[in-house]
Write a structure and sequence with these properties.
Shape: globular
Distance between the termini: 51 Å
Strand content: 25-35%
Bound molecules: zinc ion
CATH topology: Rossmann fold
CATH architecture: 3-Layer(aba) Sandwich
CATH superfamily: P-loop containing nucleotide triphosphate hydrolases
Number of domains: 1
Number of strands: 12
């Protein structure tokens, strides 16, 4: 045991720059390639390939997360940081594994949507925010009025909750434009 690893959470609505902030954060840590893991959920089909490119131009393979994933198979004695994108899609089992890893001193950074398009808490995000040592609320620009946006507004009637990879169905909106819709 080497104390508790810190947990930084970037949260906000769509188009708020969460993934960009996550990548910037990873880049700033200057860890070697074998010292950090990046996880993305399998539902995130947007990029097609599972790599991220850090700001020094190096690309890094992502681990595709599904609820069958055993994170302990990927963690090595060298692992110092676990980065999670689209963290709202990770489950409670993963969350308790993450807490165990933090107990070993591993640092965690997560980025995700804090609210779904109905304004409800989204998946694992509230649990992560609860235990976060640093919370960074990112805001987009409201696509109606240009003010700071905290809500994701869905423009279509499609009732399927997970409709990602189709950003054109969503808009960032401020509270009054979201509620006045
Ligand atoms: Zn607005």
């Amino acid at each position: 045991m080497s104390g508790t690893g810190k947990l930084t959470v970037f949260f906000g609505c769509m188009f708020a720059g969460k993934t960009t902030s996550l990548i910037k954060y990873i880049s700033e840590q200057n860890f070697r390639q074998n010292e950090f893991l990046v996880l993305k959920p399998s539902v995130d089909i947007r990029s097609g390939k599972a790599t991220i490119t850090t700001h020094d131009g190096k690309s890094h393979d992502c681990i595709i997360y599904s609820n069958e994933l055993d994170i302990f198979e990927h963690v090595t004695p060298f692992t110092k940081l676990i980065a999670i994108d689209e963290a709202q899609f990770f489950d409670k089992v993963f969350f308790s594994d993450l807490k165990r890893l933090m107990g070993r001193g591993i640092q965690v950074v997560a980025a995700g949507l804090d609210k779904d398009y109905l304004g409800r808490p989204f998946g694992l995000m509230s649990s992560l925010l609860e235990i976060a040592t640093e919370r960074v609320h990112l805001k987009a620009k409201c696509q109606c009025c240009g003010k700071d946006a905290e809500y994701t507004y869905r423009k279509t009637d499609n009732k399927v909750l997970i409709l990602i990879g189709q950003d054109n169905h969503y808009e960032a909106r401020c509270e009054s434009c979201y509620k006045g819709a």
